[in-house]
Structure formats: structure tokens, C-alpha cells
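User: Continuing from earlier, I have the next pair ready.

Assistant: Great, send them over.

User: Here they are, in order.

Assistant: Folding the first of the pair now:
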Amino acid sequence: MPERTLTPNPEDTTTLAPKPAEQSAPHPGATQPPSTGQRRHVWVWLIVLVLVAGVALLIYFQHQAAEQESNEKANANAQKAVPVVTATSKTGSIGVYVEALGTVTPVYTVTVTSRVQGQIMEVHYREGQMVRKGDPLIDIDPRPYQAALTQAEGQLAHDQAMLSEARIDLQRYQTAYAQNAVAQQQVYDQEQTVKQLEGTVQNDQGAVDNAKVNLIYCHITSPIDGRVGLRLIDPGNIVQANSTTSLVVITQLQPITVIFSVAEDFLGEIEQQLRQGQKLKVEALDRTDSKTLATGSLLTIDNQVDTTTGTVKLRASFDNKDNALFPNQFVNAKLLVETQHNVVLVPTPAIQRNSQQAFVYVIKSDSTAAVQNITTGTTDGNITSVQGIPAGTVVAINGFDKLQDGVKVELRKGSRNNGGNSGLITDQTP
């Protein structure tokens, strides 16, 4: 039998050739070495962890350093004395005031109009001029009134002559009647004629006086002392008698008054002072309540209370020598009702308040601050009466944002005006 030879088929994938060793199945208990990609991934995570740990340590050390620096600053500030300005409380007097909004009101305001008709010939005043009573203001053409006066005087002279003649006839008739030369009726008739002429003469005299008055009206003078306002009419204009058109307005400035309203609750106290003969002081201050314009006294109280507001009007008089008060000006009026004596006074800026009570920072002899509760009373400007501390107590008047109970303080150089009449002076370093 011939020998058969097996020839492998190239397309046959099921050849019996032995498999490579790397393709053989691994042993279940054997350990495979990590690949290159896996080793690189591990190193990246290690580097990231190291960086995070370094950043955390850096932040921690920075926080510790900042906290240490803050503590050092706090300790330094705690040891450093707070600079303050101080004042010493003292015993004195303080006024109890009633404050209100007032209006400056002149005692006299005159609006001058013409009482005769005619042309304005001349204006003698200047706008804003201060005039005295009797000073010339305006001249109106007097010629028609001068002519009327001449006619009246002529008629008066004529009737006076007739009256003289009638009296002479009456005397002659009376003599003749005594001699039985005329009838008694004729004497009576002559007597009545004399009386009629006497009435005529009186009427003529009235006409003359009226013409003289009209002539005087042509020369307008100031009826009061005061200030002239703006010029309202010029020469050449024709004015009418008894017209409502103003020729000039004059306002008295010295003295001048202020009218203000206070609550009716103060009425009894004010009237009590007036009944005792007290002259109540009134101050007029500007709008900002910082400058005293004038000082006067209470003049009178109105006769009724305004039921809509529950207030009563008061009028105060001021000399106004410097013309600081101007008509219709709004001012702040302060009425001194009472003066409290022998009270403890401190500067108002020294008083602090919390949600419960008013207090001051008392500066002790060891230059430390201590909180002292007080009770406040009357306030007059920058001075306030208090209870709770004796006179001679040193109190702080600034630096409150840094002051605490027990904090060391240091007097700051400088002085401060505390206002008021108590004479409080701030303490200061030499």
C-alpha cells in the first residue's frame, strides 16, 4: 500500500500545531506583574497627595502666625492707654426753658395811602431808609387845594363883614327901641339875622379848615419811626383820594416783638411767675438754634387757648437795637420759666446711654475708667444737670468707642468749650 503524507491546509485554523507559551492559560494561583500604565497612575496620585498635604500645612502655619500677630496686637492695645479729654463736674445753676417756634412781629406796621387826589410831585424817601416820625415821604400837587383854600378864606371874610354889619344894626335898633323909636319886632328880626350870619361864618370857617387839611394831606409825612419798604409809586403818577393802593409801607423795628405758641401745660407755671411780678426772660435764636439773635422779656399772654392745637400764644418784646430781628422772620424762642440752683452740672457730651440707663465714664485717681449710672435732669445747651455723681468728679467727654470699664486712660492735650453759664472747663495735660 502506498504511503500517505499529510499536508497541512493553510486555511485550516484547527491545526494541531503546538500553542505558544504566552498564550497558555495562567495558573490560578500565579501573580501578574503591574503594567506600565498602572504604575504611572499610582505615582500621579502620590504626587497629588503630597501637594495637598503641603498646601494644608502652609495654610495652617499662616493661620497660626496671623492668630499670634492678632493676639500680640490685642495685648498691645490692651496695654496702651486710651487718650481722652475730661471735664470736672461742679455745682452751679441752670435754667429751665420752654422752647417754641416764633415769628417776629412788629408793634406797628403802617400802610400809607393818599387822602387827596392829585399828581405826585416828589418822593423824598429811599428804599429801606430808616425814618423818624414827621419825616417827609411824598408830595402831591397842592395847587388845586391852595386855590380852594383861597376861595374859602374869601367867602369867610365876606360873611364876617356881613356879620359885623348886622351886629352894628342890631345895636342901633336896640338903642332906638330903648327910645321907643322902633318896634320891638324889628329888634327881634335883627337878632335872628345876626345869628344866621354867625352860622354862615362858622360854616365858612369849616370850609377854610377843610381846605387847610387837604393842603396838609398833599404833603405826606411818616406817622411812626420805622423802616421804609420798597418804593411802590414814582413821581408823575396820579393818585386817587381814599384809594386802597399803597404809596409806602413803614414798619417799626425798635422795639419789636416775637409771637410764639407753647403747650397749655406750661400755662399755669408761666402765669404763676407773672403774678409774682417776675420778668421772664426770652431769647430769640436763629433757625439752627446755635446763635442768640436778641434777648428780651415776656410781654403778655393771649386771652384764650387754641383748641385745635392745645397751645396758647405769647408775645415777647425786644429792644432790637442792632436790628438783628426782622419782621416776619422765623426764630426759635426760649422762655426761661425757672432757674435751678445748687445742682451738679456736667457737659452734655459726657453723658452716654444704653438700653436701660444713662451713664458716664468716671476717671479714677489711678487713671482708669469706671462706668457710673446717673439720672439726667435739665439740659441747657451743652450743660446738663445730673444726679448720681458728686461735684468734683472727673468724667470723660470723648473716646467712648474705646472706653470700657477698667480701661487705662490718658489725658489728651487740648481744651474744649462746653458752653452754658456754669463755667465748666475741660481738664488737660500741662
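And the other member of the pair:
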Amino acid sequence: MIPRIVFPHIILVLAIMVLWGNWPMEAVSPREEVRIVAGGDVMLGSWVEDVVRAKGWSYPFLQLDSVLQGADVVFSNLEAPFGREDSAFEKTFTFQVSPDLIQVLVAGKINVVSLANNHILDYGPCALSYTMNALRETGIYFSGAGQNLTDARQPAVLQVKGRKLAIACYSLTFPEEFWATDSTAGTCFPSHTFFYRDIKKFKQENDLVIVSFHWGGELLNTPKEYQVQLAHQTINAGADLIIGHHPHVVQGLEIYKGRLIAYSLGNFIFGSYSQRAIRSMLIKLYYGTAGIKQCKIYPINVNNGEIEFQPKLLQGEDKIQFINELNSISAELNNQPLVINSAGFIEL
């Protein structure tokens, strides 16, 4: 039997062990990795609308379960507003999507979208406002556009597995009338007067900062010089990852200061039968205590004449050919050879 006088000492020792984290009965487990999937341009109007109404909201994603399953963040560019507006901006192509098709995003587990693009104002500020409200009501985060420039500058901020992620989106595409001002709605053009200061602030306030740009030339598989310069300067300011959209085709990958730059992911779910944009990719990234240290490329077939708005993972020789071509167009962007292995992995 332990003498009664010893009990206070035992209690004191146990209290110290708990306070200092030395309690032997329960090990402290490390925080889980955050899994992020980034996809290309999503435009749910035109021919795709009839297909998903007939086959179900989840139809476009049925071949991608192995990629999307378990993802904490699924990010894409929303290339068209939701709404029923009648008056369109005068330009060659204008897009608008029936409001109920927002359920396609939900079915695909897409929980963050960029609104910073050259179509989100196709049907004016009312359609933009409707789109933002619909996304909020559905629980989908967004960045890149707003009722004014201050609003459009705000990143989407997510709390995931004990970490704070900021996703900030910007458009460098025309028409210039779509760019938000202090008093008008629109997209966020990354002006040097605030952009780098904002990125530094986002990094101070968050664990991970992802920046998305709508930029470059349509159907070009290499970035323009300004894209490379802007990407480098953005990483210098604090960004951890850069994701690009707009060309509709894949552009090369670059590793700069240990950070990944994906200049263009190509199309994802896009209402077009164009034969000039038939291959694309998803990127899956694993973010942990040491930052983003692993990335996997998933080449996909987006030739809607073959897959009818249901992207399929490339397999066999098609996958190898895609990865070889991606390695080739990435080579000139990197001082050190960038190697994407046959399984699609890049070690950062």
C-alpha cells in the first residue's frame, strides 16, 4: 500500500506530465496531409447542358472517382456565370448557364472556383451577383470577382485539417471593361499598385497561398514572357503554388524556388466539340507540415466527340505520349531538368 502522504506528489507529477505533453498513454498524432485537386476550365452551357440533364449531375465525373475521392479541395475555373439575363455584352462568344446546373459542381466535389476570367461578366453585373450568391448558398468558395475592386481582391479562405488555405484569383484577359474598379463590378486585374502587397499579406495570414491566373494566349502550349515573369514575382512575394487557365490547352510546368507553376491546365468540363482542345490534365497535390512536397499529374481525354462531356483518364500509350510531350514543353522552362515519371509524379 502506498502511504497517503505520497498521493499529492503523484498528482503533481501527473499534472506536470500532462502540461508538458509527456503523458505516456496517448501519443500526439501529426496533422494529416491536405489533398488538393486542380482542374481546368469549366463551362456548363451549350451542348453539355442537355447531356447532364439527361444523364444526371454527376455524369461528367464518373470516370474520375479515383482522382477526386478523398480530396479536401477541388479547384477549377468557372468560365461562365449562372443566370437568366437577356442582355449580353457585345463580343464574339458569350456564355451563360442555367442556375440549376450549379448542382454539377456539387456532384463533382468542386468546392472552390475562380471567377476571374473573360466570360464571367458576359451577361453583366446582375448575372455575376446571382452567381456569387448561388455559390455562397451552395457552400462553394470563390475568388477573383466582386461588386467592386476591394471585393474582387479578396481570396477564398478555407480551414482544412487545422491549416488555413488562401486561394486568390486574377484575370489578365480582355475585355478591359470586365475589370473591377472602385465603383464597378468585375474581375480582379493584378495591378502592381496592390497585387504584391496583397500576396505578402495573404502569406502572413495563411499557411498556404495558391494563386490562380487567367492569362496567356488561347491554344498556345507555351507561356508568354510576361506570364513567366509574373509567376516568378508572385512566388517571390509569397505564393506557394500557381495555377493557370485560359489557353484551353496544356502548357508546361515549372519548378521555381521549389514551388510549382502550372501555366495552363487546359479544359475540364467544357461545352464545346472543338478538336483543338482534346487533351488536358488534373493535378493532385499533397500539402503537409513540410509544404507541398508531392504532385501527381492525371492526363485526361477531353475530346467531347469521343467522351461526350465525361472526361476519361488517359491510359497506356496515350498516357505515356501525353507525359512525354508535357516533359518536352516543360524542359525549356526549367534550369534543372523537370522529370514527370510514367506514373505522373513530380517530386518537388
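Worth noting for the second one:
The chain has one domain: 33-347. Confidence is low (pLDDT under 50) at residues 1-29.
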